[in-house]
Predict the 3D structure of the following.
Amino acid sequence: MILVTGAAGFIGTHLVRALLTQGHDVTAVVHTHTLPSDLSDRVHTIHADLADASSLSLLPHSVDAVFHLAILSPREEAPDDATQCIRVNTLGTANILEYCRTRQVRRLIYSSSIAVYGAPDSLPVSEQAPLRPDSFYAVSKVAAENLCQRYHKAYGLSIACLRYASVYGPGQRPHTVLPLFLQRAASGEPLILFGAGERTQDFVYVKDVVAANLLALSAESCDIFNIGSGVGTRMEQLAQTVAQVVGADAASITYDTSRTDDGIHFQLDIAKARRELGYHPQYTLQEGLEEYCMARGSA
């Protein structure tokens, strides 16, 4: 049996589907969200607040592996987010680690984020780059990673931590750049870029992230791995690709030169995941967007 926390989330639902396709018996842990209808009858579902240690008694006594994806990721930082992020992301992870230790779980796959790097000094960013978390969310993820490493060293737990780039695909938050671009392009509205659209980001399709999780499940390496496309895409390139995929006129891309895009430039070095996990992204940005658009159209 495999346990998936955060199973009703964006990546979690895709992972659960993949595990079921492979024939695994899946137990899904959810908190405030519910599983899609195509999954709810195919898995055993547990409603639990993992930050509450007493909720661990609700989890199965024996599981082979745990995928820990449950997170709190605020859209905009607020004063109480420090407490909430530490509670959900760090304390929740500590409780899952203790669950794995006491139940002798064979393997834990922890979902982390490139947010732990903050603003990198150079690109591409390897796992050895300095960690400069610049949000409460990122701080809580660094702390959770440290807990994973400590449990591995102290108790021999087999753990892989996966640091995701900007994951996109069906089911992602609607107020992020790609869903907004796709919606505007489909509606004939202009795609607005700040400045010259030169900021770069590493976009990785959700199915490649799921594949990385499945590879990490069967691997023996207990380490931290970057999971992305390994390609730095400029915002201008992103807008042009969206316009091409949707069939919109590329001229609908406009530039707001009164504002600068002060976001962080990113491109991940994924050589370690290629070497130790056998991870090879299968989707180019255009291929991922085409599949994403098809899914949006059939929804």
